[in-house]
Each structure stands twice: as C-alpha cells, then as structure tokens.
Write a structure and sequence with these properties.
single chain, 224 residues, alpha/beta, Rossmann fold, five-stranded parallel β-sheet, 8 helices, 7-cyano-7-deazaguanine synthase, ligase activity, forming carbon-nitrogen bonds, Rossmann-like_a/b/a_fold, ligase
Length: 224
C-alpha cells in the first residue's frame, strides 16, 4: 500500500511539479521534495519552491547542480541566449541531461531517507520534444537506477499521458486549482502565477487553462 510508504518529489515550484506534489501527498504516508539549483535564469524559482514546500509542510532539500551550466549552453541557464523554438529542432530552453541527472540524484537522496518512490511531472503529451520527458526514457532510467543502486525504485509520472488542460483538471480534482494557479512559477521571465503571457511556457499554460475552464468547468455547471 502506498499509504504506508515514502516518496520524494522532483520539485521546481512550477505547475506540473506542484500538481504532482499534491498528488503525492494524497498517495503516500510521507512526502519529501528535492529542488535543484542549476543556475536557472531566475533564482525566484527556488524561492517559490521553498515557499510552497513550507506552506504545505513538506521537507525540501535544495541540491547544487550548477555544474550543468559548465556542461551545456541553453536559454534557461544563459540570459544572453534567446528563447526560440525552430521547426525540426529542440527549443533553446532544452537543458541536456537535466531530467536524467535530477532523477538520478533524487534517487540517491530517496534511498538515504528510506524512500523507494520517486515522483516527477514529465509528460510527452503536449511537450516541446524534450527526449528526457518521454515514457521510454523514464522506464529505462527506472531499470538502470534499480540495477545501479540495488533498490526497487518506482518512478511515478502522474502527468505522462495527459495534456495541459487535463493537468489543470487534475489539479482541480485534487482541490489545488487556485493554489497552483496563484502560487506556481512556470514563466520563463520569472513572473509567478499567470506569468508574462508571452513566453512559450506561459502560452502553453494559459491555453491549457482556458480549455479546462471552457470544457470541464462549463460541463460541470451544465450538469449541476
């Protein structure tokens, strides 16, 4: 039974990972979160994660992963690189190896605190083509971690097969819609909540929310 076990959530303070955090809190007896400082554009992301974890009573560990900035150049770690997504190529926001490294370090932390469950908010339904968001990658890494650390880890991906509108509905079903909308940071320009409305992350988030409100909330009002 999951209710008797402990989970570690890979947590950024964004919409997806916060939704997963609420999910984990309902699924597991104990939940911890881990956030990574990899030199991202906005240190506010880490402060946002700390604030959310504190308000929800979740122990948060922040790990220094600044070495990523030494290995790869991208728009999330370099303010002089514009955020662009040209057809046929990965967006400039793609950070090589990020989810691979984050999940691997999260597993080390999890084993140390007696947790075998890892939770991450990756999905391949309406993503930007990031290879380390794919289900095949997560399943492959799960096997690798189990072999490497002689531990029966389970990597949970609650959002893997749902789009952004369904992710908003998922948060709503968890009773967390308003919290996720008002407290999370998804915006590439560092604006909490609804964000700047112009960057790719904000456009995806807003389009999903508008679809959710018109499709799901409208249906509920009609049925009631």
């Amino acid at each position: 039974m999951l209710k008797n076990e402990t989970a570690v959530v890979v947590f950024s303070g964004g919409q997806d990972s916060t939704t997963c955090l609420f999910w984990a809190m309902k699924q597991f007896k104990e939940v911890e979160a881990v956030t990574f400082d990899y030199g991202q554009r906005h240190s506010l992301e880490i402060e946002c994660a700390k604030s959310i974890a504190n308000d929800l009573g979740i122990k948060l560990t922040v790990l220094d992963m600044s070495l990523l900035g030494q290995l790869t150049q991208n728009a999330l770690t370099r303010s002089d690189i514009p955020i662009v997504h040209e057809e046929g190529s990965l967006p400039s926001t793609f950070v090589e190896g990020r989810n691979h490294l984050f999940l691997s370090f999260a597993a080390v932390l999890a084993k140390g605190v007696g947790a075998r469950h890892l939770v991450t908010g990756v999905c391949e339904t309406d993503f930007s083509g990031y290879p380390d968001c794919r289900d095949a990658f997560v399943k492959s890494l799960n096997v690798t971690l189990n072999l490497a650390m002689d531990c029966d880890f389970v990597i949970h991906t609650p959002l893997m097969w749902i789009d952004k509108a369904e992710t908003w509905k998922f948060a709503d079903d968890l009773g967390a819609f308003d919290f996720v909308r008002e407290r999370t940071l998804t915006c590439y320009n560092g604006i909490i909540g609804d964000g700047c409305g112009e960057c790719p992350a904000c456009k995806l988030r807003r389009a999903g929310m508008e679809t959710f409100l018109s499709k799901y909330r409208y249906q509920e009002e009609v049925q009631s």
